[in-house]
Design brief:
Length: 369
């Protein structure tokens, strides 16, 4: 379920640059689902990347995905490297082979979707941010919910408790229905130009009411502030955070675990064995094992290796050095109830792949979803 985000990766840097440039120039047109213009209100401006009902979900990066209780897969948001943020919500009931558009222009379409989770009762929670002022930006973390598989959305809170920040938080839903948000990255747009502030976070926040209110569990988790980390919630309720891009711009392959909803953290492996990376995708399987896939290394090389741990991240075994899908970062993945893994999209791709052997081998489900 959990993918990671990294604003320092080339694709997302291009996306953010284009969005900011067009916003500053007043050039982004607003459209609705049938591509007719409509007026914007407040700071929300919906781009023409709202989905047409007859279109596919396009090549995209940084999208999010989840498995609902009925085993269907939902994909949300993301970005097209050449144009900007995408808005549609899509659903598949056949393990990613075919897709149905659930919402062409959801209510949160004025935001960038940062991440999303599904709760045990099937409710989908989306976290987005909205830029209030380009010269002195204030990022409003909004939380939206859907109880009908992404078709309609309700604003749960207009301002989550976390301090002003932009991209890169990692969020998991725990078995008890609570949500834990970890770390982030702040990008600064100064006087209409793009300036990266290099402010990273390692604070931990938790919500027990589906994202409406938040409590800070830890102001500094112990692991280095970072973005682009990958995280999973295990069946026993513990949380594991892996890799990412640190505040010193180095890439990581350390493993950290919390058994108390993010209040305290223990480093269980300082170097997992796989290449330090950001933008990887990871899932927790029903047997409690963790699978990490792809990403990008410190030299800018995309990766398509797959690694698995059966002891909460203490030790790792390489499942394959080169999976059937092309090297990529900012893909998303889900673990299905039959133990299979579905990998979706990523840099320059909108294909869907499935593995039934913990990531060792892969079958292409759809070459152009």
């Amino acid at each position: 379920m959990q993918k990671s985000r990294n604003i320092d990766s080339p694709g997302l840097f291009i996306i953010v640059f284009l969005i900011v440039f067009l916003l500053a120039a007043g050039c982004i047109a607003s459209h609705n689902a049938d591509n007719s213009s409509f007026a914007t209100t407040g700071t929300h401006s919906v781009s023409n990347l709202c989905m047409n009902a007859n279109s596919t979900w396009f090549e995209r990066i940084d999208q999010d995905s989840m498995v609902l209780p009925d085993r269907s897969i939902v994909i949300i948001g993301g970005g097209e490297e050449s144009n900007g943020f995408l808005k549609g919500v899509w659903r598949s009931t056949d393990d990613g082979a075919t897709w149905m558009l659930m919402s062409a222009c959801p209510a949160w379409a004025g935001d960038s979707v940062d991440t999303s989770v599904v709760l045990p009762d099937g409710k989908i929670i989306v976290f987005g941010y909205n830029i209030n002022n380009l010269s002195e930006p204030d990022y409003f973390f909004e939380v939206w919910g859907s109880v009908d598989e992404g078709a309609t959305w309700t604003l749960d809170t207009a301002q989550a408790g976390q301090s002003s920040r932009s991209l890169g938080q990692s969020v998991v839903a725990l078995p008890d229905g609570s949500i834990v948000s970890m770390g982030s990255y702040n990008i600064n747009f100064a006087a209409g130009r793009l300036g990266i502030a290099n402010i990273y976070y390692n604070d931990i926040w938790r919500s027990t009411d589906q994202g409406a209110t938040w409590t800070e569990m830890n102001a500094s988790a112990g692991w280095t502030p970072r973005t682009g980390a990958s995280s999973v919630a295990l069946p026993d309720g513990s949380i594991v955070v892996m890799g990412g891009n640190r505040q010193d711009n180095g890439y990581s392959n350390d493993i950290w675990r919390s058994t108390d909803q993010g209040a305290t953290w223990t480093e269980i492996n300082a170097s997992a064995g796989w290449t330090p990376r950001t933008g990887a995708s990871s899932v927790a399987l029903l047997d409690g094992s963790i699978v990490v896939m792809g990403g990008i290394d410190g030299y800018g090389h995309g990766l398509n290796d797959v690694w698995r741990s059966t002891d909460n991240g203490v030790t790792w075994m390489e499942q394959t050095s080169h999976a059937g899908w092309s090297a990529r970062y900012s893909a998303t993945s889900v673990a299905l109830t039959d133990g299979s893994i579905v990998l979706i999209g990523g840099t320059g791709d909108h294909d869907v792949w499935r593995s039934t052997d913990e990531g060792a081998t892969w079958t292409e489900m759809n070459a152009s979803a």
